[in-house]
Amino acid sequence: MRTAIVVGAGTSGAIVARRLADAGVEVTLIEAGGYDSNPAIHDPSRAGELWHSADDWDFFTVPQEHAAGRRLHLPRGKVTGGSHALNAMIWVRGAASDYDSWERAGATGWGWDAVEPVYDAIENDLLPVTDDYALSPIQASIIDAAVEEGLPHNPDYNGGTLDGVSQQQVTIRDGRRVNTWMTYAQPIADRLTIVTGREVHSVIVESGRAVGVRLGEGVDAEELRAEEVILSAGAIGSPVILLRSGIGPADELSALGIPVVVDSPSVGKNLHDHLLSPVIFTTERPVGPPQTGVSVTQSHLFWRSRDGLAEPDTQPIHFSVPMWGDLEPRGDDGFTLMAGLVTPYSRGALTLSGPDLADPPLIDLAALEDERDVAALAASVRQCRRIGAQPALAEQWGAMEVYPGPEVSDADVEDWVRRTAITYHHQVGTCRMGSDAEAVVDSTLRVRGVEGLSVIDASVIPTVPTGNTNAPAAMIGERGANFLLGR
């Protein structure tokens, strides 16, 4: 029987494991974290509790020169379900042009005509995607205020046009989170060999072929072998494993004493992410605390910050709570219009600080390095300020802007953005696919230079789509499994 190891039980990995097992492959699924027993995972109102928890890898960037020298927290799921166990469950396909641009850049066969049927199948098969839920009163008013600001109401942003304000389409059923681990892998757990709580150090490569993985290191080291190795550890985890395996930029590996297996200069490069910046309001009319089974975000919008753009470049996300973060709380109740940048020009890189599991990756998003990113995010902040001042919020709720606040003029918003920008949780690009010699994987997601090794997750995305990346990660999982099975 054909054997395979899948590293990572997140969005892509759970799908790959299921599809291979259904085809008769003997699959070992490895998850560095534990099972999703934390009740906060399953209640959409408690997602904020998961950051910095045992279920979060709790990554931080290096100090970001263009974001006020801050180290940005990058929550990533260290649990069955991966980051889909921590996120806001928002389902966004993105724009058709996103995928057509992938193909034009060398990702052969990844245009919209190829990926659209995969989205259709996912949404009609094992993963519920719905907007059939009651809006919280504050969320309904936020949508009304956005329309008062001049935005169209878009009843289906996944229907071909992103522009406008919309109720979010989410993977929630009966007030509980649903992710691909729960619907793809967990139901067939008896047909998988599942290893939890063990971190993969590296891939074992012999005579140019991947033959297994090394779990742990030192006295706890263990080798597992299989005919195929699939890395689905995400845009941070997958390149880290490749680098520790000797697959990456030769000069960087040699400097750390890691024997070079394949000189692949793009591993860890092309790192980019969507960014958010908060606009926070308190209210005279009580919004109230989060309600069990109800997400604290139910609406968002897509908007073009300047003329001439082919697609929206901003995606504010709206929260029914004040998202103070590192800011000083100024009240117990309110809401947040979180300005969002979704077409970043800045590109960073991920490198190793050492060859061992305990050596943290050096993650540099180069956040806001490109002035166009600052301009777009600042424009989104200004728009969120205007929305909060519309009658549906200012009059009906007594909404008052407390951050940035009246002391920050619209002209000073660029500085606000640099001081407050945070991740939108959408890192991609570090194992870029393409047809050029420097692409990490080819268009079938096979690692160049190593037989029997694939990367199937958001790290292969060459340019981040216009919107949340969970849906693209699921689509990549389905397509990657088909490539492995010769379909």
Automatic annotation (TrEMBL):
Q: Which UniProt keywords apply?
A: FAD, Flavoprotein
Q: Which Gene3D superfamilies match?
A: FAD/NAD(P)-binding domain, Glucose Oxidase, domain 3
User: Glucose-methanol-choline oxidoreductase N-terminal domain location, by residue?
Assistant: 234-248
Cofactor(s) recorded in Swiss-Prot or TrEMBL: FAD
Q: Which InterPro entries match?
A: FAD/NAD-bd_sf, GMC_OxRdtase, GMC_OxRdtase_N, GMC_OxRtase_C
Q: Which family does it belong to?
A: Belongs to the GMC oxidoreductase family.
What is this protein called in UniProt? Choline dehydrogenase-like flavoprotein
Q: Which organism is it from?
A: Microbacterium phyllosphaerae
